[in-house]
Amino acid sequence: MSASAPVSTPDLSGSGAAAPERILQRLDWQVIRRLDGLLQGDYRSLFYGYGVDFADLREYQPEDDIRYIDWNVTARMDSPYIRQYVEDREITAWFLLDLSPSVDFGTVQTQNLKRTMLIDFVTTMARLLTRHGNRVGAIFYGSRIERTIPARGGRIQVLRLVNDLLKQPRLSRAPFTDLTPLIAGGLHAIKRRALVFIISDFISAPGWERPLTLLNQRHEVLAVRLWDPREIDLPDLGPIMMEDAETGEQLYVDTHDKKFRTRFAEAARRREGALSEAFKHAGVDVLSLSTEDDLVRSIVRFATLRQQRRK
User: pLDDT at position 262, please?
Assistant: First the structure.
């Protein structure tokens, strides 16, 4: 259940300032350039499990990246050695996109919606991948799989993804989301090993956990979990009408009631714990994206943690 508010909806129709070209230009300047500087162009920390194979060892030379020093061999040889890797010539990445009604939750006045974060993240990752000659595709899910965009490379493909996302009709009401068809659709549609981003708030009927495990056995899967702080910690707003974004069910509650806010927070903690356990069981790393997060900081934080876990 989420609180509804009588406010205007931001323009994400693809016209004016929200045009695909302008979105890409904004992210090139505000996000991608910063990522290049912070990650120094090395995106292995993000996609380390895909397409990177150990090739050889050689003695360390000045200006080599110290992150690739093999400390066990260095200790045995009494001289620093580094690992060399070869990467596949091409990565094919797929975005499995949950566009169900709950992704339109957020602070509408400032356009801090989960859908906005989804569009910015997809645009950023697609741009980073395609500019190095890789291909990207997408599967759109609303109440069912709406469309599949075949994987292709180039800047035009990025703009097509953004344009189709902006034009994707919003569902004002839908049956409660079930992510199983989206993940199972990815299992059937993606034939060759790929890098798969599942981008969702994971507010779903149960049952998606098993296909997620199967998908991760065939591909490198990263879960990108969208959330808003008000879904976890309900502010004291007094009496309000809460509305389920998926079904439209309404409930009148008094958020001034401390006991109610406590029960709400406890239910949110249980939901968070269940999600964490599901991702852990599937062996999938999770990038958590809040509507109040800075996208660059979130991606760099994720890259750092992912790199540390693989050492």
Answer: 75
